[in-house]
Amino acid sequence: MSKKRKKISLIIYFSLIIILLVASLLVPGYDSGESIQDAMQDAVLHEHNKISLFGMLVNPGLISSYVVTIVLLLFALILRLFVIPRFKYEPGKFQMVIEGVVGLFDDMAKSYSPHHNRFLGPYIFGAAAYIFFGTLFELVGIQITAITGVPMSLPAPLSDINGAIMIGCLSYLVIMFGGIRANKAKGIVLTLKEFSLPISMSFRLFGALLSGLLVTELVYYYTALSFALPVVVGVLFTLIHAIVQTYVLTMLTAMYYGEVSEVKEKKKKNKKPKEALA
Fold first, then answer.
1. Which long-range contacts (CB under 8 A, 24 or more apart) does 235-240 make?
2. Are the C-beta atoms of 256 and 197 separated by less than 8 Å?
3. Which of 201, 237, 258, 269 could be disulfide-bonded to 112 (CB atoms 3.0-4.6 Å)?
């Protein structure tokens, strides 16, 4: 690229920034009829903006979880019926991506639980897919109308505390299953020692996604900040949370599963040799 083109590109870039800055200062604020405190509180608790599902009032996060689950299951079904049977010995780009992702979680399961990993690998792969694509789901921006008549976009499933508790408790039950399978009743005792694990998993997911949700809500609320900045903030927070939280939950699940599923060998008592009778 020539120097003249670089200068022209920089001039256009800075001109757009100045135009957006001036517009954000000149455009009057939008009166939404509720304070920023009420807006952020409803973004967390969904006390007012609920959705009607077959006559039942539910949180928007439940609709999001259904949509993400159905899409993932349909994609897995299509992949299994039409794509995997056509895999070749010399893989193409798409096949290499699929095999690389599956191999990543399979290696994680084997490294943390060498003896009992047949169920662990598929579970952490499924949990990772749900967390990652569920977090990115809010970027799609599917519009719905709440019972109050307010238009809104569907949030990430795990931004609802109920969804975060669900995935945390499910991971804890999988860990307990591994302990029971390897050590029977002792596996239950080993798992119950980590009684705070489902709480920490749940609130780690919820807290991470909630922070991004509240920051984005705050940026959208003020018109002076709602030019171009929400795109950067929303995409940045969403991508970071999707990658970090997927890695953290799958790693913790695999690590604790490996600990409780490790076979505990019984210690043999060493018998002292009998002293020769005098």
1. 235/139, 237/211, 237/212, 238/135, 238/136, 238/138, 238/139, 238/156, 238/212, 239/136
2. yes
3. 258
CB 182 within 8 A of CB 92: no
Query: What contacts 260, CB < 8 A, 6 or more positions away?
Result: 175, 176, 178, 179, 182, 183, 187, 190, 191
- 57-71, 76-90, 148-162, 255-269 — which is least confidently predicted? 255-269
More confident residue, 76 or 277: 76
Question: Looking only at Cα atoms, what is the longest distance across the chain?
Answer: 108
User: Model confidence over 105-157: pLDDT tens digits?
Assistant: 999 999 998 888 889 999 999 999 999 999 889 888 788 888 877 777 788 88
Residue 85 tokens, joined = 């049977």
According to DSSP, the residues that pair with 53 across neighbouring strands are: 56
**Pairing between β-strand 51-53 and β-strand 56-58 as defined by DSSP bridges:** antiparallel
- Alpha-carbon span 98 to 156, nearest angstrom: 24
- Please, which pLDDT band fits residue 30 given cuts at 50, 70 and 90? very low
Q: Is 253 helix (H, G, I), strand (E, B) or coil?
A: helix
- Interval 166-185 mean pLDDT: 90
pLDDT above 80 for 181 = yes
- Look up the pTM and report it: 0.76
CB 146 within 8 A of CB 50: yes
